Amino acid sequence: MFSGFAERFGASFAIFRPSQIMEKDVEDQASLIAAADPMTAAIGIFLHILPNDFARYLLGAGGVFLMVNVLFASRLAGRKIRPSSPKPGQMRREFAISMRTTLIFTLSGVASVMAARAGWLDTYYVIAERGWGYFAFTLVMLIVAHDAWFYWTHRLIHHPRLFRRVHRTHHKSHNPSPWTAYSFDMAEAAINAAYLPLILFLMPTSVQAIILFLVHMILRNAIGHCGYELFPSRRDGRPLFDWMTSVTHHDLHHAQAGWNYGLYFTWWDRLMGTEHPLYHEKFAAAVRKPLDGSAVAALSRQAAKSAHKKRGPSRDPAY
Ligand SMILES: [Zn+2]
Ligand SMILES: [Zn+2]
């Protein structure tokens, strides 16, 4: 039943076939869940998910760090966003804190699997049960809804009453590295960990879609913190995929909190007026391309708006 899946996803990988790993992972999980008593099942699932979650962080953040910040660092020098680089001490701290986050993510994973075991969540293993169209739909939904969840909870934890206790650790990395990806306070880790059980409660989802969602999540997260602009640009210096958040987009959030709360897409920041007014200018500078002037115009519009707010409504109705 998994061979069709393996063929579709694995055919182009002669040596390394992620589909085979997924296939094995899915089968392992299925047998663990089938354990007779709930405690044995929960412990078995915990011991199964923990190394998976740890490996995802280690390979995702570590892989991006090795490729971008070590191996290709000199080649990518022309796309470095800031002149300075994160210090080793900062990266060690990020790694240590990320271990705690990994544990919290694992506990959320165990809760999800146990909920599925009890029949509260509808997760399934055979993609053909609901078809490939539904599989693609759920994968897109997982990513789009996660972006919304992240944007709004992220804005919430920037509230002065919550920031110090919930989000300060992440912003200690003023100049982030790929290891910053999971550097969260416990409460922030719990907010992020809550997303998957919640969405799975609302939407029947295949285990394969969940695994792909998690791989995409760690890669976008680690890349967003790598300090080099990896996203392609147009000739005029604007991002080619302007609807996606670039590395500069999230880097600006760390440099100057108060702007750019989005994770994968720029939609929410634009809709809510929270995108940094100099974002396009900073992106153009990161890819060493000339400016088209629109960012400067946006900045003066923003300055006019905040001056208007400070002074209160002007007598001139056109202002
Ligand atoms: Zn933040
Ligand atoms: Zn960040």
Describe this structure in words.
The structure is a single chain. The chain has 319 residues and is an all-alpha fold. The protein folds into two domains: 3-228, no CATH class; 234-319, no CATH class. Helices cover 63% and strands 1% of the residues. It has helices spanning 3-10, 18-33, 38-71, 88-117, 132-157, 160-166, 168-172, 186-202, 207-224, 247-255, 267-271, 279-286, 294-311; strands at 123-124, 205-206. Strands 1-2 form a two-stranded parallel ribbon. Helix 1 (3-10) runs antiparallel to helix 2. The termini are far apart. Bound molecules: zinc ion (2 copies). One zinc ion (ZN) is lined by residues 154, 158, 167, 170-171, 253, 257.
Question: What ligands are attached or bound here?
Answer: zinc ion
* Helix/strand structural class: mainly alpha
Shape: globular
User: What's the gyration radius in Å?
Assistant: 22 Å
Q: What is the rounded distance between the termini?
A: 65 Å
Low-confidence stretches: 1-18, 310-319
Subcellular location: Membrane
Protein name: Sterol desaturase family protein
Transmembrane segments: 57-77, 97-120, 132-152, 194-219
GO molecular function: oxidoreductase activity
